[in-house]
Amino acid sequence: MRPTPLCAALFALALAACQPVRPAAPVAAAPVAVAADDNLNAVLWVQRSEEYQAASAQAYRAAIAQLDRALAEGWDALVPAERPSAVGAERPPAVVLDIDETVLDNSPYQARLVHSGEEFDDAGWEAWVEQRKAQPVPGVLEFARAASERGITMVYISNRTEQMKQATLDNLRAAGLPVADDSVYMGMGMEVPGCAQAKPSEKLCRRQLAASRYRVLMQFGDQLGDFLRVADNSAAARQALLRQHGQWFGQRWWMLPNPTYGGWESAAFDNKRTLPREARRAAKREALETTP
């Protein structure tokens, strides 16, 4: 006997009710757009590459190999035009070092900016300095020991401000760097009697002050302005300075790698830091060379 249409429909409904309920397929999450950041690779290189560690340690070890010669020959690491006119005959030996990215590694601060999509600002920088958490760059502690064993004082000329002095000295000591006394920190805004300069960030007067107290055997930095005055921060003027004084690098001057910021970047957009980020980025793209 064939089932009636009603019986067939009821049977189909009962069979469907007995089937297991399958969960709905998950909906794929929309990809999160990550804004481009010019510093991503630069900060990653500093924090994660063995090449950065090697380059930094290499510079300091090469400088150690020159210390005895520097002492024996009485090197003066200031260019003749910047040397103070009157200095003591028996000045103790010293080396002058920049702090940020030369002695202390601030890449965690730069990494925070990459994550947040923000740019450098004074308040955020001051907060980072107050944390006193910057670590020594590779090789600097080895150099510091070698210099101290030879009676050479380390003098820190930095564009951290004078108001940041205590936090910076605390950080230097915590990182294992020698601090002879508070006078070896020469921050931006420090007054040097009898010396005038165009802008506070220039280090000319502070270099001259250091040279009046010590025989400066070597200078260390990550920017051209750490070694001599850069009156015109254009690409052409910077190249001219390098041609004129470049022979001192690897002897009296030691440059540390810093791909994250510097005068080289500002020169690409005519030092107009108030331009919108995209305008600065466009100027940097335009500065790239695509043909030999």
What's the pLDDT, averaged over the residues? 91
**How many β strands by DSSP?**
7
Number of helices: 11
Question: Any idea what the shape is?
Answer: globular
| N to C succession of SSEs | HHHEEHHEHEHEHEHEHH
Given the helix and strand composition, which structural class is it?
A: alpha/beta
Strand content: 5-15%
Q: Structurally, how many domains make up the residues?
A: 1
Rounded to the nearest angstrom, the distance between the terminal CA atoms is 92 Å
- CATH level 4 superfamily: HAD superfamily/HAD-like
CATH class: Alpha Beta
From the alpha-carbon coordinates, what is the Rg to the nearest angstrom?
29 Å
Structural account:
This protein is of the alpha/beta class and 292 residues long. It has one domain (38-258): Rossmann fold, CATH 3.40.50. It contains 11 helices and 7 strands. The chain has helices at 5-18, 40-48, 50-73, 107-116, 122-131, 140-149, 165-174, 204-213, 235-245, 263-268, 277-287; strands spanning 93-97, 104-105, 135-136, 153-161, 185-188, 215-221, 253-255. It has a 5-stranded parallel beta sheet with strand order 5-4-1-6-7, sandwiched between helices. The chain has a two-stranded antiparallel ribbon with strand order 2-3. Helix 2 (40-48) crosses helix 3.
